[in-house]
Amino acid sequence: KPVYISLPHFLYASPDVSETTDGLNPNEEEHRTYLDIEPITGFTLQFAKRLQVNILVKPSNKIQVLKRLKRNYIVPILWLNETGTIGDEKAKMFRSQVTGKVNLLGLIEMILLSVGVVMFVAFMISYCACRSKTIK
Questions:
Q1: What does DSSP say about strands 73-85 and 44-57: parallel, antiparallel, or unpaired?
Q2: DSSP of 67-136, one letter per residue?
Q3: Please, are residues 80 and 32 in contact by the beta-carbon 8 Å criterion?
Q4: How far apart are alpha carbons 89 and 93 in whole angstroms?
Q5: CB 3.0-4.6 Å disulfide test: which of 11, 29, 81, 107 passes with 7?
Q6: pLDDT digit string (tens) for 105-122?
Q7: Other Cβ atoms within 10 Å of 74 Cβ, number
Q8: Other beta carbons within 10 Å of 90
Q9: How deeply is 45 buried, as exposed, middle or buried, from its count of CB atoms within 10 A (0-12, 13-18, 19+)?
Q10: Model pLDDT for residues 16-72, shown as the tens digit of each residue
């Protein structure tokens, strides 16, 4: 049988697919798949992988129960839900050990940039002073 993968309760599916199955209540908050990533380090903070496995059921002359079907149906057979989150203790450790050091690197970057600008200005003044003495 052909197998089709969808979001649970046929979330975001065409109404033609979900209207043939009773008891479906698609809810974006409960049935969507998402991945929350810390933007500086790329560390995964929270995720949810949710999917539904469906099979295609067609009318068939060989199977008595399927003879009465008028059309094809996509029938859900399995719903998978995997979620994970970093947790408060690990988030605090991550913030102190990783994010704190990234912020420190930003401070060091600004200090080195400032020192470079001051040195550049000082050398330019020194160069102009030495050049003006040479021209006289």
A1: antiparallel
A2: GG--S-EEEEEEEEEEEEE--HHHHHHHIIIIIHHHHHHHHHHHHHHHHHHHHHHHHHHHHHHHHHHHH-
A3: no
A4: 6
A5: 11
A6: 888 999 999 999 999 999
A7: 19
A8: 11
A9: middle
A10: 888 888 888 899 999 999 999 988 788 888 999 999 999 998 898 888 888 888 888
Q: pTM score, two decimals? A: 0.62
Contact 49, 85 (CB under 8 A): no
pLDDT at 132 over 90: no
3-state secondary structure of 36: strand
91 falls in which pLDDT band (50, 70, 90)? confident
